[in-house]
Predict the 3D structure of the following.
Amino acid sequence: MALTLYYHPLSSYCMKVLIALYENDTPFTPEFVRLNEPEPRAAFLKIWPLGKLPVLKDGDRLVPESTIIIEYLDQKYPGRTRFIPVDPDAARQMRMRERFFDCYVMEPMFRIVADRLRPEGKHDPHGVEEMRGRLATALGMVDTAMEGAGFAFGDGFTMADCAAAPSLFYAAKVTPGFGSSFPNAAGYLDRLTKRPSFARCLREAEPFMNLFPEQ
Protein backbone atom coordinates (compact mmCIF):
# COMPACT_ATOMS: atom_id res chain seq x y z
CA MET A 1 0.00 0.00 0.00
CA ALA A 2 1.39 3.39 -1.01
CA LEU A 3 -1.43 5.90 -0.79
CA THR A 4 -0.73 9.63 -1.02
CA LEU A 5 -3.44 12.27 -0.69
CA TYR A 6 -2.87 15.69 -2.23
CA TYR A 7 -5.08 18.00 -0.21
CA HIS A 8 -5.61 21.19 1.77
CA PRO A 9 -7.09 20.83 5.28
CA LEU A 10 -9.47 23.78 4.80
CA SER A 11 -11.07 22.36 1.64
CA SER A 12 -14.54 20.89 2.14
CA TYR A 13 -13.99 18.27 -0.56
CA CYS A 14 -10.66 17.30 0.97
CA MET A 15 -12.33 16.98 4.37
CA LYS A 16 -14.86 14.66 2.78
CA VAL A 17 -12.07 12.26 1.74
CA LEU A 18 -10.12 12.66 4.98
CA ILE A 19 -13.21 11.58 6.90
CA ALA A 20 -13.30 8.35 4.91
CA LEU A 21 -9.59 7.72 5.48
CA TYR A 22 -9.84 8.44 9.20
CA GLU A 23 -12.97 6.34 9.63
CA ASN A 24 -11.01 3.21 8.75
CA ASP A 25 -7.56 4.29 9.95
CA THR A 26 -6.38 3.80 6.38
CA PRO A 27 -2.63 4.47 6.18
CA PHE A 28 -1.71 7.25 3.75
CA THR A 29 0.84 9.98 3.22
CA PRO A 30 -0.70 13.49 3.40
CA GLU A 31 0.72 15.87 0.80
CA PHE A 32 -0.32 19.38 1.78
CA VAL A 33 -0.74 21.53 -1.37
CA ARG A 34 -0.77 25.33 -1.19
CA LEU A 35 -2.40 26.23 -4.50
CA ASN A 36 -2.05 29.96 -3.83
CA GLU A 37 1.75 29.72 -3.89
CA PRO A 38 3.47 29.53 -7.32
CA GLU A 39 5.96 26.73 -6.70
CA PRO A 40 3.63 24.27 -4.91
CA ARG A 41 0.93 24.99 -7.50
CA ALA A 42 3.32 24.37 -10.40
CA ALA A 43 4.48 21.11 -8.84
CA PHE A 44 0.91 19.91 -8.34
CA LEU A 45 -0.11 20.87 -11.88
CA LYS A 46 2.53 18.48 -13.15
CA ILE A 47 0.71 15.72 -11.31
CA TRP A 48 -2.86 16.84 -12.06
CA PRO A 49 -3.06 19.59 -14.72
CA LEU A 50 -6.62 20.57 -13.79
CA GLY A 51 -5.29 21.77 -10.44
CA LYS A 52 -8.25 20.61 -8.34
CA LEU A 53 -7.97 19.01 -4.92
CA PRO A 54 -8.20 16.36 -3.64
CA VAL A 55 -6.29 13.76 -5.64
CA LEU A 56 -5.36 10.31 -4.37
CA LYS A 57 -2.24 8.57 -5.68
CA ASP A 58 -2.06 4.81 -5.31
CA GLY A 59 1.27 3.69 -6.67
CA ASP A 60 1.20 4.77 -10.31
CA ARG A 61 -2.57 5.34 -10.33
CA LEU A 62 -4.17 8.76 -9.88
CA VAL A 63 -7.71 8.97 -8.52
CA PRO A 64 -9.26 12.47 -8.63
CA GLU A 65 -12.60 13.79 -7.31
CA SER A 66 -13.81 13.18 -3.76
CA THR A 67 -16.72 10.88 -4.61
CA ILE A 68 -14.58 8.67 -6.85
CA ILE A 69 -11.80 8.57 -4.26
CA ILE A 70 -14.17 7.31 -1.55
CA GLU A 71 -15.63 4.70 -3.88
CA TYR A 72 -12.09 3.62 -4.73
CA LEU A 73 -11.17 3.33 -1.05
CA ASP A 74 -14.34 1.37 -0.32
CA GLN A 75 -13.48 -1.14 -3.04
CA LYS A 76 -9.70 -1.37 -2.79
CA TYR A 77 -9.08 -0.63 0.91
CA PRO A 78 -12.23 -1.65 2.77
CA GLY A 79 -12.39 -1.28 6.54
CA ARG A 80 -14.85 -1.44 9.41
CA THR A 81 -16.92 1.40 7.92
CA ARG A 82 -18.32 0.58 4.50
CA PHE A 83 -19.34 3.72 2.65
CA ILE A 84 -21.50 2.22 -0.10
CA PRO A 85 -24.31 -0.28 0.55
CA VAL A 86 -23.96 -3.66 -1.13
CA ASP A 87 -27.55 -3.64 -2.36
CA PRO A 88 -27.67 -1.75 -5.69
CA ASP A 89 -30.95 0.01 -4.93
CA ALA A 90 -29.74 1.14 -1.51
CA ALA A 91 -26.43 2.23 -3.05
CA ARG A 92 -28.29 4.37 -5.58
CA GLN A 93 -30.39 6.02 -2.88
CA MET A 94 -27.30 6.70 -0.79
CA ARG A 95 -25.52 8.23 -3.80
CA MET A 96 -28.50 10.51 -4.40
CA ARG A 97 -28.11 11.88 -0.88
CA GLU A 98 -24.35 12.19 -1.26
CA ARG A 99 -24.76 14.09 -4.51
CA PHE A 100 -27.43 16.27 -2.87
CA PHE A 101 -24.96 17.53 -0.28
CA ASP A 102 -22.28 18.14 -2.90
CA CYS A 103 -24.48 19.83 -5.49
CA TYR A 104 -27.13 21.62 -3.46
CA VAL A 105 -25.39 22.44 -0.18
CA MET A 106 -21.66 22.50 -0.93
CA GLU A 107 -21.94 24.24 -4.31
CA PRO A 108 -24.06 27.29 -3.35
CA MET A 109 -22.05 27.62 -0.12
CA PHE A 110 -18.84 27.66 -2.14
CA ARG A 111 -20.16 30.32 -4.50
CA ILE A 112 -21.22 32.55 -1.62
CA VAL A 113 -17.75 32.24 -0.10
CA ALA A 114 -16.03 32.74 -3.46
CA ASP A 115 -17.86 36.04 -3.93
CA ARG A 116 -16.42 37.28 -0.63
CA LEU A 117 -12.93 36.67 -2.02
CA ARG A 118 -13.49 38.75 -5.15
CA PRO A 119 -11.74 42.13 -5.41
CA GLU A 120 -13.71 45.29 -4.74
CA GLY A 121 -16.03 46.12 -7.61
CA LYS A 122 -16.21 42.53 -8.82
CA HIS A 123 -18.86 41.22 -6.43
CA ASP A 124 -22.12 39.71 -7.67
CA PRO A 125 -24.90 40.59 -5.18
CA HIS A 126 -27.62 39.14 -7.42
CA GLY A 127 -25.76 35.86 -7.80
CA VAL A 128 -25.14 35.64 -4.06
CA GLU A 129 -28.82 36.28 -3.34
CA GLU A 130 -29.75 33.50 -5.75
CA MET A 131 -27.26 31.10 -4.09
CA ARG A 132 -28.58 31.99 -0.63
CA GLY A 133 -32.07 31.10 -1.77
CA ARG A 134 -30.90 27.82 -3.25
CA LEU A 135 -28.93 26.99 -0.10
CA ALA A 136 -31.89 27.80 2.16
CA THR A 137 -34.12 25.49 0.12
CA ALA A 138 -31.59 22.69 0.31
CA LEU A 139 -31.08 23.14 4.05
CA GLY A 140 -34.83 23.05 4.54
CA MET A 141 -34.95 19.71 2.76
CA VAL A 142 -32.08 18.40 4.90
CA ASP A 143 -33.87 19.61 8.02
CA THR A 144 -37.01 17.70 7.07
CA ALA A 145 -35.08 14.56 6.13
CA MET A 146 -33.09 14.54 9.38
CA GLU A 147 -36.11 14.70 11.69
CA GLY A 148 -35.74 11.55 13.78
CA ALA A 149 -32.84 10.28 11.63
CA GLY A 150 -29.35 9.49 12.83
CA PHE A 151 -27.53 9.34 9.52
CA ALA A 152 -27.98 10.74 6.03
CA PHE A 153 -29.01 7.32 4.73
CA GLY A 154 -30.06 4.20 6.56
CA ASP A 155 -28.82 3.13 9.96
CA GLY A 156 -25.09 3.60 9.47
CA PHE A 157 -22.38 6.03 8.44
CA THR A 158 -21.94 6.19 4.65
CA MET A 159 -20.38 8.31 1.93
CA ALA A 160 -23.42 10.59 2.22
CA ASP A 161 -22.35 11.49 5.76
CA CYS A 162 -18.79 12.13 4.54
CA ALA A 163 -20.27 14.71 2.17
CA ALA A 164 -22.74 16.11 4.71
CA ALA A 165 -20.20 16.93 7.41
CA PRO A 166 -18.07 19.59 5.67
CA SER A 167 -20.94 20.95 3.57
CA LEU A 168 -23.12 21.59 6.63
CA PHE A 169 -20.17 22.88 8.66
CA TYR A 170 -19.45 25.61 6.12
CA ALA A 171 -23.12 26.19 5.28
CA ALA A 172 -23.68 27.04 8.94
CA LYS A 173 -20.92 29.65 8.72
CA VAL A 174 -22.60 31.48 5.83
CA THR A 175 -26.21 31.08 7.00
CA PRO A 176 -27.33 33.50 9.75
CA GLY A 177 -29.60 31.77 12.27
CA PHE A 178 -28.67 28.32 10.99
CA GLY A 179 -29.37 26.56 14.29
CA SER A 180 -32.76 28.16 14.90
CA SER A 181 -33.92 27.96 11.29
CA PHE A 182 -32.81 24.37 10.70
CA PRO A 183 -32.74 22.64 14.12
CA ASN A 184 -32.70 19.08 12.79
CA ALA A 185 -29.87 19.85 10.38
CA ALA A 186 -28.02 21.64 13.19
CA GLY A 187 -28.46 18.65 15.49
CA TYR A 188 -27.13 16.36 12.78
CA LEU A 189 -24.13 18.64 12.26
CA ASP A 190 -23.48 18.60 16.01
CA ARG A 191 -23.40 14.80 15.97
CA LEU A 192 -21.07 14.82 12.98
CA THR A 193 -18.64 17.25 14.62
CA LYS A 194 -18.39 14.87 17.60
CA ARG A 195 -17.57 11.88 15.40
CA PRO A 196 -13.82 11.23 15.78
CA SER A 197 -13.08 11.23 12.03
CA PHE A 198 -14.64 14.65 11.41
CA ALA A 199 -13.47 16.07 14.73
CA ARG A 200 -9.93 15.27 13.61
CA CYS A 201 -10.50 17.10 10.31
CA LEU A 202 -11.68 20.18 12.18
CA ARG A 203 -8.69 20.13 14.52
CA GLU A 204 -6.33 19.95 11.55
CA ALA A 205 -8.19 22.75 9.75
CA GLU A 206 -8.28 25.07 12.77
CA PRO A 207 -4.86 26.71 12.14
CA PHE A 208 -6.13 27.79 8.71
CA MET A 209 -9.64 28.94 9.66
CA ASN A 210 -8.47 32.54 9.72
CA LEU A 211 -8.32 32.27 5.93
CA PHE A 212 -12.07 31.66 5.76
CA PRO A 213 -13.83 34.92 4.82
CA GLU A 214 -16.38 35.52 7.56
CA GLN A 215 -18.24 38.27 5.67
